[in-house]
Amino acid sequence: MPAGPSPRAHTVELGHEESLKLLARVPLGRVGFTHQALLVIRPVNHVVVDGEVVIRTHAGAALLGSAAASEVVVYEADQIAPDTRTGWSVMVTGRASRVTDPAALFHYQAQLTPWVDMDVEHVVRILAEAVTGYRLVR
Fold first, then answer.
1. Which of 16, 109, 119 has its CA nearest to residue 54?
2. Left (φ > 0), alpha (ψ -120 to 50) or beta: where does 56 sit?
3. How many Å separate Cα 81 from the centre of its chain?
4. What is the mean pLDDT of residues 121-137?
5. Phi-psi region for residue 21, left (φ > 0), alpha (ψ -120 to 50) or beta?
6. What is the mean pLDDT of the chain?
7. b/e map of 39-64 (b: 16 or more CB within 10 Å)?
8. How does residue 4 score in pLDDT terms, banded at 50, 70 and 90?
9. Which end of the chain is more exposed for a tag (fewer CB within 10 A), N or C?
10. Cα atoms in the Cβ-side hemisphere of radius 13 Å centred on 32
11. What is the mean pLDDT of residues 115-129?
12. Closest CA to 31 of 77, 81, 84
């Protein structure tokens, strides 16, 4: 008898704290924001510090405009296993702000090493105003 498709997974909603813990376990996600009235999504590495998502970026980054205006952005990361069709996804929505305090800037820069070979001296903090997450389980 030929093997049929795997049984479907179902979703389980995650709480705020569990979602942030999962997000903190992966180094890469995607930040979504508006730029020139269009939606933009950029892959970036991050850290989670005190319930906030922290990323670094370069001087010409479009995200800095959103952060300077304290606009609402979204950050999403996941870990999905296609072979088992299980995993999780977390989305953080909140205001982005550029970190300018020298002590905070030094603190975040020490925790977050950029993946790209360019000068990414700016730090953007996303306040986790809304956190949603789900797990795909069998």
1. 109
2. beta
3. 19
4. 94
5. alpha
6. 89
7. eeeeebbbbbeeebbbbbbeeebebb
8. low
9. N
10. 9
11. 85
12. 77
Buried b (16+ CB within 10 A) or exposed e, 66-82: bbeeeebbbbbbbeeee
d(CA 35, CA 66): 8
Q: Which residues of 15-26 are buried (b: 16+ CB within 10 A; e: fewer)?
A: eeeebbebbbee
* Per-residue tokens: 3: 């093997």
Burial class (CB in 10 A: 0-12, 13-18, 19+), 86: middle
Distance of alpha carbon 127 from alpha carbon 55, whole angstroms: 12
Helices marked H in 26-132 — which ranges?
63-68, 102-111
- Nearest residue to 88 via CA among 23, 42, 7: 23
As a whole number of angstroms, the distance between CA 132 and CA 72 comes to 15
What gap in Å lies between CA 23 and CA 25, rounded to an integer?
A: 5
> Which residues in 25-84 belong to E strands, given as ranges?
28-35, 38-45, 47-49, 52-57, 72-81
Element containing residue 21 per DSSP (H, E): helix 16-25
